[in-house]
């Protein structure tokens, strides 16, 4: 990260029109405390985890934390930039949108049938404030420099293109004030050659969400919220995607050397995402995904389906990364009801270092096109490392697996409960190391060194309590068995 404050030349400071870069002062409602980075619960042998397998629609929840920004990073903190020009865009129902451009600002504006197209050119530090409402409008932004778009109680629905389409390509601060709603149509008009239009909200550049307002998005054409750069969510902000035809939140990740492999980073706020699309992902990144704080609720209800690009059976997932997934804080709730679904799927490693993680899967294993898709609470194609946190995984559908690593598994802390109707825990041939608390249930489990395994028959849906260690003296804990099984095993590690 760039740790230096960017200083504007003196002449620019003297000639700027500078609104308050912290436009919102209201405090979000206080809710239950959210675990911070590195949080691990005290192990209580009497505690029994419970799971909710129902996907709940968004009901107005907002971030419980107040806006807070990295003190010396002007790439993530909008308060460290003096915005030179203030451009105001107001949508007004069926009437033509009003656009106010201050004297001296080089931005150019075109409006047609409720659609506003603003080109910021090569000018730095332009701030757009967008408000009002329209059932048939859109905003497109072009340019080549860092900029800020403030959504101020905006309701914008487009019939034939993204509601907001930011083609600038440079860093975008998306400042949320009040309640904002965006949606697009199910079919788009043709785009200029080479222009991407990937969702109801789309940004070509890195996108930093800030402020203490909310943004609610519905994607009727493809994705809901999409960016071809990285996505960074600051404390205080609320991002909601109610549904999307494909992925609810889709992030390509940064291609720059300075931000190489940066995909999604959630450090606070509230993020809710839901998709009912076959093979849809609630949160998808071509790069890394990190959750460091805040409250995150991700859901998918579609079944696995054939991917037309390669003919494979593609699984839906709450979190999908083409590289790695790291969770070190916050409250993360993942619910998937579709067949073949994954809670967390990483093509690389998964690392759990802290926070409170709940995963509930209820779909069954599925076959199709000569392929198969197995529901898995956590699936790392690489290593799976658990160093902290409270990690509670239940995959109760037929043929399901709780947690699986393609290579090794290292459990060096935390408290982990994992159930899969087929296997509670599975790891590759490189084996596993464990010094944390793990209770794993299923038909069978991979063999840990020094594990205590109970063989069970005719297990009803129940809580198995008073589990003893291998010497039969020390109480290890209680375990909830979510489905009845004819034969099963329970692996206990401490």
Question: How would you describe this protein?
Answer:
With 494 residues, the chain is mainly β. It has one domain (35-65, 179-493). It is built from one helix and 43 strands. The chain has a 14-stranded parallel β-barrel. The chain has a 13-stranded mixed sheet with strand order 3-4-6-8-11-14-17-20-25-28-32-34-37, with no helix packed on it. The chain has a two-stranded antiparallel ribbon with strand order 23-24. It is elongated, with a radius of gyration of 24 Å. The two termini are 38 Å apart. 56% of the residues are buried.
Structural class: mainly beta
Instruction: Give the spatial strand order of the biggest sheet.
Output: 7-9-12-15-18-21-26-29-27-22-19-16-13-10
Contiguous runs where pLDDT drops below 50 for at least 5 residues: 1-30
End-to-end Cα distance, whole Å, is: 38 Å
Broad shape: elongated
The averaged pLDDT comes out at 90
Quickly list its features.
494 residues; mainly beta; 13-stranded mixed β-sheet; disordered N terminus
Topology diagram in text:
Elements: H1 10-15, E1 85-92, E2 95-100, E3 108-112, E4 115-119, E5 126-134, E6 138-142, E7 147-157, E8 164-166, E9 172-177, E10 179-183, E11 199-203, E12 207-211, E13 214-219, E14 223-227, E15 231-233, E16 238-244, E17 249-251, E18 264-266, E19 270-275, E20 281-285, E21 289-291, E22 295-300, E23 305-306, E24 313-314, E25 317-321, E26 325-327, E27 331-336, E28 342-346, E29 350-361, E30 366-368, E31 371-373, E32 376-380, E33 384-395, E34 401-405, E35 409-411, E36 415-420, E37 423-426, E38 432-434, E39 437-442, E40 452-459, E41 462-468, E42 475-481, E43 485-493
Parallel strand pairs: 1-5, 4-6, 5-7, 6-8, 7-9, 7-10, 8-11, 9-12, 10-13, 11-14, 12-15, 13-16, 14-17, 15-18, 16-19, 17-20, 18-21, 19-22, 20-25, 21-26, 22-27, 25-28, 26-29, 27-29, 28-32, 29-33, 32-34, 33-35, 33-36, 34-37, 35-38, 36-39
Antiparallel strand pairs: 1-2, 3-4, 23-24, 30-31, 39-43, 40-43, 41-42
